[in-house]
């Protein structure tokens, strides 16, 4: 396991750089080219060397491209042929005499053409952790490219997902919690650069951690829908959000060297709805052996101004009163005062506390930094050292600050401490064309540190409640891919994963006037004597393909896949422990340790059938989630309920069934035998059954053993708990009998030509659960609604794009898009109304729920030169006032966004 201290000096850096350059040698009789497709390097493309009769050239059978797309071509006879093959691309044959001609050297690039006769040629990584064609994967994947992110000019990674059609909940401005197929927070696995972000304190409510990954440094995102436990393990019940950041640049060099490769990008973005400014710079440089990528972003946000046009709901045409900010808390002479417009006008549309604190004008800011170093000691081996750091100032919890008690704000202060995330990782990628154990291998060793602190103070209370949590995460992954036959129609994927989480939890009270710190009265959020979570897993996937004939009438490694079978198993051991010092814990507990230990086996099987212009996919998969420290040991008071630890939790299990069908219709003029325009329609249906689902249920404090008149008796625990003057009902996390989620999606894409595009999507999900007994009474399962189930939602998009000839001296690109986003109504009857639910009933409209809404948005990208581009976007054009389901904050009103970007 690799660990290091991130401390570099100029002398040390120069020494390392000099040593790396010492490896920079090349054979005089070889040339090196980079193989690209769709503008991106093709990794693992097959390169063969044959004579004019198609026979392999003696001693030079072939090779494969490396992780930067480069490949070494040996010295051949001029009449010999170099054959390039890659899944989803047309086979390319180039005469060596032409390839070695001096006129070819200025580019060193071989460009392969996408095969036009296959439904989809998108290459994805998330399903197996290795590159493969999306159309042949039996599961549903959505890929978000860097170009799409730049066009929308999103402020955070959460907004990137929202702009791509993913449902996102918000509790404050500094956040965003994605919901995938009715699963949220710790039931959706977030992965960045192959490292799982989910840790032992990821909760079941709403999580804002995704914004700690800077969208400006992302190369792409992939959303893998449905349980993915075989490859990714625990937490991937709803799906996997896979984020890949930009890798270091390395230049291919051969007999004639190109020299160092450099690239820089910078942009400045402004948004009017919250008066925000973001600046970003990334710089990459490298040669054949060593590369570097540096990324730095700084964002500053003001309070969000909501829309002024009222939504329509239940016959009303007015903005709900609890959606407007008509009062907040200020300080005068060290006393809390409620500012409610008595001494001046308050703008009810200005959501004070979304960025600035109630008692300060310091705006919310976030700093993101990434440094990657890439090292290629020899062909087929590539190492990446990856450091990521994200921090912010205090994050105001707007939904809590806006809550009322007796007609006045309940809290004077409620905020998170700086949202810090640190990641160190070492990644080793290995390619072996004829390896006995593997053809590709991926090793990742990582360390993460996450701080999550909470501060809250009730109105007119001098005691500030402080809760500190620090998490250290160590992880190791090893993943392998091995082709079992020559034409790569049978492949096995296997690997292992080990993780260890250490959680330190502390708490106290601080007198805001005297600054006195009071220990022992405030229970820690988790065990006050240390918490840990350990997992170890092994998995194997088997893939079998039946390939159709390629354009030469033959089948080979890169021939189109007609039929695919994928089946796999994963074994996992897990242990979660919370320890307590009873004498120092404010809540009396009958145990000093809460522990959950166990092992499980999960599996999946999937089929895909992709004849010409069709794609059918069917799969059955199992998922699971091990109770983490947050499930097992959390103590929390919220909205009249207090959650206490439960040492009797069991893992959650998911069974998922789904089917997908897609058809492409081609029309228009023909070019090279292929019609220029197409329409792709697809439909997906899924059903998930969740066993032992963890939900909150009313309970009581632990029973106490005592002695009365020399007789040992048990005193039942109370069903309420009084904490700092507030009496709350006791609830625990417990395993419900069963939860069911059913959903479907419809999608349509039209490419009328290379200029006009149209897309549409619609999603609908329903979820219920049964708990058998709740509050000592039998209940009807139809009355229990599962949390996190969004209303129906979708989009319509119309786009026009113009590109000038890229080979000319002048190059321009212009794209304009009209995006219509809509959500259906979420009636109160479909909310989860159980104890301590996550649907946030207080933020809905009383006796109604959440009304339907729709927004019109306009996006424009103008690249007026090869180096500079301008984005001008308008979101929520009609200035509608609306809230996304379960969100505690209203969405921005009419929002003007302008971004100026330069590439150098």
Structure in words:
There is one protein chain. The chain has 904 residues and is mainly beta. It is 5% helix and 51% strand. The strands form 13 sheets. The chain has a 22-stranded antiparallel β-barrel. Strands 11-17-18-15-16 form a five-stranded mixed sheet. Strand 13 and strand 14 form a beta hairpin.
Short synopsis of the structure:
The chain is mostly beta strands and 904 residues long.
What key attributes describe this structure?
904 residues, mainly beta, 22-stranded antiparallel barrel, 5-stranded mixed β-sheet, 60 strands
SSE inventory with pairings:
Blueprint: H1 10-21, E1 31-37, E2 40-41, E3 46-50, E4 62-64, E5 70-73, E6 81-85, E7 92-95, H2 96-99, E8 109-111, E9 123-124, E10 132-133, E11 141-145, H3 146-152, H4 157-163, E12 167-169, E13 177-180, E14 183-184, E15 188-192, E16 195-196, E17 218-225, H5 229-232, E18 239-245, E19 261-271, E20 276-286, E21 290-301, E22 304-305, E23 328-332, E24 335-339, E25 350-351, E26 364-375, E27 381-392, E28 395-396, H6 398-401, E29 404-405, E30 408-409, E31 411-416, E32 420-431, E33 440-458, E34 463-483, E35 490-511, E36 517-518, E37 531-547, E38 561-579, E39 593-609, E40 614-625, H7 629-633, E41 636-638, E42 641-644, E43 652-671, E44 674-691, E45 694-698, E46 704-708, E47 711-715, E48 720-723, E49 726-735, E50 738-751, E51 756-770, E52 773-774, E53 777-778, E54 793-803, E55 813-823, E56 826-827, E57 849-850, E58 853-863, E59 868-875, E60 895-903
Parallel strand pairs: 1-8, 15-18, 42-49
Antiparallel strand pairs: 1-2, 1-5, 3-4, 3-6, 6-7, 9-10, 11-17, 12-13, 13-14, 15-16, 17-18, 19-20, 19-60, 20-21, 21-26, 22-25, 23-24, 26-27, 27-32, 28-31, 29-30, 31-33, 32-33, 33-34, 34-35, 35-36, 35-37, 37-38, 38-39, 39-40, 40-43, 41-42, 43-44, 44-50, 45-49, 46-47, 48-49, 50-51, 51-54, 52-53, ...
